[in-house]
């Protein structure tokens, strides 16, 4: 792993890490099996390295890595330890008398935990935080897909799997994109069957592909009461505290109509025409309107005696249907809806390339 040490951080980054880190460090230290997990992963990695390079080069490579690992906190001056390092003795890794700094070695795992559970980014600059989160996500995607890592991690592999799923859900929500139901379950810390039952009971709306719109996923998470909104997107002076929701997303509320099956009118139900442009089909069947801008479409719906629009089938099978807002209106944060609108625009631009 490409572990970033404290020396890599600016003074401002360190201060932010100290202040905001208080919200998740204790939780991480108490809940995450980082020490046992990284003992197993490191032993596996060095075993594979020795097997790949052969006895001579493999022993030398393992010895060099052991020097680095033991240098984080182990007693490398003892003669018996020096001799075992030269031999590439992997049993040193599980020798807890040497006080190896597994907390530092597992830094990326800690960052994955901090982001997945607390929406935390450690940099003052949101772009730097976002880039680092993307890098960590990609690293753990590869790790989770590796059979050797799964085997080496054993019973602790579920920690990697569940944290990655939660982080994937949060990343999708942070960017206004729909969420995989099982990932949402991991973020909410409930069983996948719980989310599946909510979808079946129409208590959660879904897109035609079975994913849950970002704003709808947020509504569900915040109803549970233990969800912390991400704050990595905001400069430190504007970031939400770990104890409170993000103020900017909740400061302005928007009401959208809900159909008889509980599905709200959200940015994700735009339909792409043959010309490649996504539009919202609103109004009566006899007098339809096709509107490109979500906010314009929502404004027109609000002015109708009975708001009507076309939506895709929740199962992804069948044709689009005309529905009406007979079940009232549901409240969402404007910023949450705007992120969904922006995601639609970004996806459209990518498809045009």
What does this protein structure show overall?
The protein is mainly alpha-helical and 353 residues long. Helix content is 52%, strand content 8%. It is built from 15 helices and 7 strands. The strands form 3 sheets. It has a 3-stranded antiparallel beta sheet, with helices on one face. Strands 1-7 form a two-stranded antiparallel sheet. Helix 7 (126-145) runs antiparallel to helix 9.
The strand count comes to: 7
Please work out how many helical segments DSSP would assign: 15
The averaged pLDDT comes out at: 85
Category by helix and strand content: mainly alpha
Summed up:
The protein has 353 residues and is mainly alpha-helical.
Q: Which key phrases capture this entry?
A:
about 350 residues; mainly alpha; three-stranded antiparallel beta sheet; 15 helices; disordered N terminus
Write the layout of secondary structure elements.
Elements: H1 11-21, H2 25-31, H3 34-70, H4 79-86, H5 102-105, H6 107-118, H7 126-145, H8 147-153, H9 157-174, H10 181-188, H11 192-200, H12 214-224, H13 247-250, E1 253-257, E2 271-272, E3 278-282, E4 289-291, H14 294-303, E5 308-311, E6 321-324, E7 329-333, H15 334-352
Antiparallel strand pairs: 1-7, 2-3, 3-4, 5-6
Helix pairs in contact: 3-8, 6-9, 7-9, 9-10, 10-11
